[in-house]
Amino acid sequence: MIWDREKECIERSQLEELQLARLKKTLKNVYENVPFYRKKFDEHGVKPEDCRSLKDLSRFPFTVKNDLRDNYPFGMFAVPKSKIVRIHASSGTTGKPTVVGYTQNDINTWAELVARMVTMAGVTNDDVAQVCFGYGLFTGAFGLHYGLEKVGAMVVPTSTGNTERQIMLMQDFQTTAVISTPTYAMHMAETAKKMGVDPAQLPLRVGLFGSEAWTENMRVELENTWNIKATDNYGLSEIMGPGVAGECLETCGMHIAEDHFLVEVIDPDTGEPLDYGEEGELVITTLTKEALPIIRYRTRDITKLNPEPCRCGRTTARMSKVSGRTDDMLIISGVNVFPSQIESVLLQIDGISSHYQIIVTKKGYLDAMEVQVEPTAEAFTGHYKDLQALEEKVRNSLYTVLSLRAKVKLVEPGSLERFEGKAKRVIDKRKK
Ligand code: DLL
Question: Taking the domains of the chain in order of start, what are their residue ranges?
Fold first, then answer.
């Protein structure tokens, strides 16, 4: 069990003191060691010494994903290559990946923070933890792996894929904790059922899900299907990987490792910092990273912060579930739609499964959205009338929430694509 009470239950004034000292050091470090930041700060007319309080951080420029791409592969590192012991990368949708590096100290911190996160989620050295994230350049698997080892769990590094074998090993090894994307967990449950195994009867007791946005309704679905407690955890490669924030068993927001990361929420349009409780884009500054310190990274993830101490005893601020990304918001005939809103609607309807796809097209000047969704096997009676009624129900529910008339198409159970990592829900055919 890794629960650093000194840091995780720290008084806010003390935390802010620690953050300020670390922030000053980080700003000085990047200014001296990363030419990209020196140039950017100079262009903005700010110097590290201008930061005298945490509020002063807002005077410094943002970093965006393209900055990492422009400096591909190692241009943003603050240490010589000889100090780097690990590389990871996040696959971009276009072009080159974003490369991130770690010193040995960074790796140690990472393991520590993931260990804290899995401890919060109730994992101990009595657990058999199956890591169903892809091992490789993706940060998910290695990140969870080292943190789980640190708490002494028995780690089963199955990676993604070969789903029938995942289920077999869960049975044979008596796996108690599953680690994956929520989407892959749903896919694994479906595979188990096809094999004649009831997922709810397996010895699993907790699921740690992250790496993509998922709704409260999906939590209910996962908890019921697997008979587990499902917690959310958040991270991104540019900042470290998993372990940036995670839910405790109270499941009322993800505790941010604030002694290592300084978080802000900004208005994505104006860039202005917002108050606690206001929803906006999460911006993160690393406070202890050696290889790749990052100043004011625009995550594009939409969330809000709650600094109130939690019932679990931790005082670190909590971020609410990510409701979407500024870049996955669809604008359909002028209406803003997040895929998570659609998921939330679908999962409230009896007879509708968690497998869906959103297809956006343009006819002339008009946008059109089609939601393809699989009914559950029970609801798929084969009677046209039943399906029509269900389709109508989905259409009306979507209209109530989105004020948008979507075309709804029920498709045969099992016919939509299944995902082993992050799901790709939206096909926007308007984009070239
Ligand atoms: O997905 C790191 C990670 C791995 C986190 C495993 C948790 C578990 P990237 O591939 O760089 O890193 O993707 C980062 O994924 O900006 C979010 O948009 C999204 N994301 C990650 N966790 C969550 C979450 C990893 N819990 C991007 N809820 C981030 C919503 C999430 N979105």
Answer: 1-326, 330-431
pTM, to two decimals: 0.95
**Pairwise CA distance, residues 128 & 120, whole Å:** 16
Reported confidence tier of residue 17, pLDDT bands at 50, 70, 90:
very high
pLDDT at 61 over 80: yes
Tokens 């010895």 sit on residue? 203
Superfamily of domain 330-431: ANL, C-terminal domain (3.30.300.30)
Closest-lying ligand 1 atom to the alpha carbon of residue 138: 10
The rounded distance, in Å, linking the Cα atoms of 238 and 255 is: 19
pLDDT at position 363: 85
| Residue 133 Cα: closest atom of ligand 1 | 6
Distance between Cα 83 and ligand 1 center (Å): 26
> Token pair 């101990």 is at which residue?
124
Peptide bond into 157 cis (omega under 30): no
> Which secondary-structure segment (H or E) carries 116?
helix 104-120
Q: Given CATH 3.40.50.12780, say whether it is the number of domain 1-326.
A: yes
Three-state SS at 236 = strand
Give nearest CA residue, ligand 1 atom 29.
236
C-alpha torsion 116→117→122→127, nearest 10: -80
pLDDT mean across residues, the chain: 96
Residues with CB under 6 A from ligand 1: 90, 133, 139-140, 210-213, 232-237, 241-242, 299, 301, 322, 325
